[in-house]
Fold this protein.
Amino acid sequence: MSVRRTSPRSLRPALRHGLAAGGAIVLVGGLVAAGTVASAAASELPQVTLTVDGSTTTVSTTAATVNEVLGDHAVATDSNDAVSPGLWTQVSDGMKINVVTRTTVKVKQQDVVETHLVAALTVADLKSELSLPTGTAATQTVTAIDSGEAANWMRTVVRTPNGRRLAMGDALVEGSVAQVQHVRVLTQSRRETVRPHRVRKTTPLLPSGDAKVLKDGRSGRRDVVLRTFRVDGVVAGRKVLDQTVLRDSRRRVVAIGTGPNWTALARCESGNNPNAVNSSGFYGLYQFSVSTWQAVGGTGNPVDASRWEQTKRAWILYRGSGSGPWPVCGAYL
């Protein structure tokens, strides 16, 4: 009859519209042309009941055959569809015309692929028509912990040709793929090592690119009740149902340098010796005078402070005055 539509479902709204409008579109021999319904009173015309994919309406018609009735109401069919009675059956008053459009669906189970023509309108209809498994986790009994047994069931996941997953009530799409899957769920208790969380912090107190561990991390331990999901033998997810912490993990903190080349500056100023003392009155890694040290927030003598503290005071000085306080060695910053 007419050219097969792109998707059987897309025509149903058009069908209902065409029926309500009294058949303003005529589809004959694959060509669409403007037409009008005969002006005879509706009560004088044959009445037929037209059902397409479960949607039923009663219409008056001047058509001579079932084929013409379908054309008058923009119902396109092809060799895959079921039309009862046949397309060339003469129209009679009270006739019931039933059209069931079929959709092509692929069913996959492991390496086996089968193609089916189905009358199903929704995913739920498809599973019912082909007797596909509909198991879900909510319907399964939870296996006792450490029994060594697992809950097993089959389920069917239906996706459109572009991979979008369809819910049970969604309309079926031409070319959809129904994947039959074997699901295995095992619930176990076990002891786990909890790896320490790692934190990276940037600091100008280290030369750019250098790293320094500020706090050592520590692994933790816990007892957990773990549920593992496998789909067709592949782990698809894990869920912790319960846990008991035996030892807390401790985060590891690492500082990443973004500052100038303090190492080169210290090597030039003091031979990289935090306890260096110059007879002219300069002290520590960066050869502070006591007055300058105090001006940037230091207390006591620079040689009594840690490397980190000395670098912190050097950064404050550098941030305010640049490399000027180190007229010779500042070139290395």
Observations:
- The chain has a mean pLDDT of 85.
- Residues 125 and 283 are 86 Å apart (CA to CA).
- Helices lie at 12-20, 66-72, 123-130, 262-270, 290-295, 307-321.
